Amino acid sequence: MKTLKIAIQKSGRLNEKSVELLKNCGLNFENYKSSLISPVSNFPLEILFLRDDDIPEYVQDGIADLGIVGENVIQETEVKVSYLQRLGFGKCSLKIAVPNNTGIESIGQLNGRSIATTYPVILGKFLKEQNIVADIRTISGSVEISPGLGLSDAICDLVSTGGTLKSNGLKPFADVMSSEAVLIGRAGSENEDLIQELIQRIQSVLRAKETKYVVLNVERDNLQAVIALLPGVKSPSVVPLAEEGWVAVHTVIPERDFWDRISQLKQAGAQGIVVMPIEKIIL
Ligand SMILES: Nc1ncnc2c1ncn2[C@@H]1O[C@H](COP(=O)(O)OP(=O)(O)OP(=O)(O)O)[C@@H](O)[C@H]1O
Ligand SMILES: O=P(O)(O)OC[C@H]1O[C@H](OP(=O)(O)OP(=O)(O)O)[C@H](O)[C@@H]1O
Ligand SMILES: [Mg+2]
User: Fold this and answer.
1) Which protein residue has the closest C-alpha to ligand 1 atom 24?
2) Which of 40, 44, 52, 181 is the most exposed place for a label (fewest CB within 10 A)?
């Protein structure tokens, strides 16, 4: 049988979450710091540990069948790959930032200025769309210190908490793109069946992350009111309790409005609410 290859980041921001996702899919593999390639013992898959910049090209060229990488890297490398699944981690934004005390107040004032970045392709396209002609200074890291060193008037870099900008006396000025980790592949792969199997496993893990399993007790008289508040995968399971007139309701609740729903359920008569994490939801 053919063995698939998936490329993930060797070390850095996406490594841990990528490994965790694959492990949660039930894949068994060793994850030594020195491993560059690791076979999966219970699925026809090998994991390649790479610099994230190389991942889109490896997938485009068919060296890897799949990859996990930030959208920012895909856009910057301008490769042709298919987005198979958004993964919900590595969320950040690419922003232009300027020193706190700068005279630059509007986007038009970037004309004729210099902007340091590790993303010259994305920034170049953005400036063109905005009809700005600026001097893009491509550097390979520590972008935030360049205005302080007199290397540039502004920067364009990834931001999540904003802590790095703040500690370097910079403020966000314009949003260029938002990004998260995505699963990428190549159109027309000959291993479509195996790829689909892996995507379904990944989706079942992602679905489970967004929901909680809830068991609650309620008097039969209040059962309909409680059921009306439950979304559930299908209708909830209702199990009679030893105590006459009471039932246990088993259901699945989305994480996003969890606490609102729990307080509504309590008001409707739910008691003894037990909440459990879900490992996988297979549709
Ligand atoms: N502050 C952040 N918060 C959340 N996600 C981030 C942040 N910074 C970067 N990312 C995402 O994580 C990806 C990897 O970031 P990292 O800093 O590890 O890259 P790198 O230094 O280029 O790593 P490599 O050594 O693999 O080339 C980025 O391309 C981006 O998609
Ligand atoms: O808004 P914040 O939460 O402060 O995050 C932003 C920082 O994170 C990224 O760098 P990272 O820490 O990954 O280091 P790197 O420059 O070595 O890639 C990015 O290049 C910023 O410097
Ligand atoms: Mg990189």
Assistant:
1) 51
2) 44
